[in-house]
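Shift notes (night). Ran ATP-dependent 6-phosphofructokinase while the centrifuge was going.
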Amino acid sequence: MMRVGILTGGGDCQGLNATIRAVGKSLMLNYNGQIIGIEEGFAGLLERKVRELTYTDCSGILALGGTILGSSNTANPFNYKGKDCSAQVVAYYHELGLDSLVIMGGDGTMSIGYELSKLGMNIIGVPKTIDNDLMCTERTFGFETAVSVATEALDRLRTTGHSHKRVMILETMGRYAGWIALHAGIAGGADVILLPEFPYDIDEIVSACRLRASEQQYSIIVVAEGAKPQHGSMVVQQTIADSPDPIRLGGIAENLKSQLEQHLKVEVRATSLGHIQRGGSPTANDRIFATNIGTYAADLIARKHYGQIVVQQQNRLTSVPLQQVANQTKAVTLEDTTLQSALALGINFGCSELKPNLR
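Came back to this:
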């Protein structure tokens, strides 16, 4: 009998329970696996909060948002309450008799997992983040659902913008990468999309809004929380010292609103979706993708192919060493197909570096 631990690290995300279900059921049915749920992410290993997951525990959770195990984005074993507690985590891993540990998370979780693997723990990574900013993979589960939520919000903001001839600004999550803003902006028909990767010039945005006012009487702007003006900085909402990523972004939409009001005669309104983007049930595609990822992770465990993270490359599942994704962020680049499509449609990105491809 193999004994496998599962934890969900970082922020909660649609599709986590679908993945727990897939890993757990696949190991139980095919490999006589015993599943140990680690509660509240790495905090469960630090504070000894674990429980066995039965087949029943893994049933009926496919469509459930959040995570039945709980999560934490502040419990870093290498800096827990100011101390390096990694040796304590490794010792408890062995005390539990685990053959391996499945960690579900983004770059922060994978960075911790990589360091723990160097200390002798058998780690398998599963790519989870609504931000889609994990290296080496084309997709992470939760991303599509977050984009769908943001797109619906844009559809709703459009009716108000049209009715009142306003500039409507929507702030999305994404940290230092603009994937959610880019994809939701295209799906929601935005006029302006502002990304962290390309600092904006306020004059470019003003010009775009004035042009839209003359043509359609209103404008829709999508701004990623990590976007910043040229020669400026990101808007930091708060700092959490003991988190793998201590900076919490937020508030750029209100800042942009204040800037635009100084140049435009029309009304400007700002909306921030915040955690609404990461809550609720996953889409059908995210449920399927999370299931495929989970069963693939179970197969890696069965083959004792440790120190790997499951990824999607060229639309197929494979795995790469944790080292390749640790301490890195996947950013939107000029070569991205979706970005090029946006430029071809004349969408404004607020900077001279990204001029629409208009003939």
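The mean pLDDT is 93. The chain has two domains: 3-141+282-324, 145-279+333-344.
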